[in-house]
Amino acid sequence: MKRNILIIGSGFAGLWSALSAVRLLDQHGRSDVRVTLLAPQAELRIRPRFYEPDVHSMRAPLLDLFAATGVDFVQGLALNIDTEGRKVTYRTAEGDEATLDYDRLILASGSQLSRPPVPGLAEHAFDVDQIEQAARLEQHLIALAGQPESAARNTVVVAGGGFTGIETATELPARLRAILGEDADIRVIVVDRGAQVGAALGDGIRPAILEASRELGIEWRLGRSVAAVDAQGVVLDDGQRIDAGTVIWTVGFRASGLTEQIPAPRDASGRLQVDSYLKVEGLADVYAAGDTARAATDELGNFSVMSCQHAIPLGRHAGNNAAADLIGVAPRVYSQPKYVTCLDLGAWGAVYTEGWDRQQKLVGAEAKTLKTQINTLWIYPPAADRAAALAAADPSIPVA
């Protein structure tokens, strides 16, 4: 009977875990181990692009790639992980419950936007976390054209001035004018609890954010947070009211709730602590990759962040190491000392930095060209060609 490497999740980490595991098994001529990927759909959803328009197109089908590489795809939603019995219970597409056994498990089920109990948030706010929510926002924005002209109709409040909030806010003026007309009096207001613009991103990247905000007309309410949301706008924690027909929540992300079923240490974001081989601390047969893993990227005290920049190499290493562990060959230490940031700033351009202190290297149109390449080419899955796809899953490939 074949042994099984089970991967939960078809995002960046899950996809590359599967390809990397198959690659190593191929190299050692092992046909006695299968690689199974469990996910609600056989597609890679290009989540870093959900702040853009035409979000319905931001998915890449994976069935042909799985068929070419021999990955067994099981459609379903993981419900329960039994680490003692080494099995996962899931809900099938038909709504039934079923189980999958595993010899090695890779948890790559991603993360979700945090939704605190802010009054009216669930009922009235939009987000760009998942493709369904981003599509709902897009439909709402398009429908604004059918509403009577008003200041509130033309105003959007973005709650949160982190990476997602900034990219969403700076994209909005062009999106709104395409819908409401070039002469529309658009207001985009970012509400952020930080004392400075882009406080979470540091000093190196701030000048570009400030310049883009000025040119695009982005307003900032600093040192403030959204205390309540209703159909006509928001109330801030100082009592100030902003009338707005659109409120977008971008504050905070948390690892998949499946991490709570793993009896192992987790950080404040719910991520599982993993060792240098991406094995979950204290467990012999469970690995984590992508947004579910807190992995040391270097020897200087830096850890992976929730982004495809880290999810892809984490997947390549987790898949390789789970397969290596199962067939008795040496695993590969995960290391990713180079860290970069490429922040989209809408029609103004973008900014590209290197290092954890974010030293600016490219700005404006030049950085925008790089960001476009990243978003439309580099993060997409390989073609359904077995040799090329497995070669791309090599964990020794240099990574940013």
From TrEMBL:
Domain of life: Bacteria
A Pfam family assignment: Pyr_redox_2
An MF annotation (GO) of this entry: NADH dehydrogenase activity
FAD/NAD(P)-binding domain segment(s): 4-312
Name of this protein: NADH dehydrogenase-like protein
Class of this enzyme: oxidoreductase
Record's keyword terms, sorted: FAD, Flavoprotein, NAD, Oxidoreductase
EC number(s) reported in the record: 1.6.-.-
Family label: Belongs to the NADH dehydrogenase family.
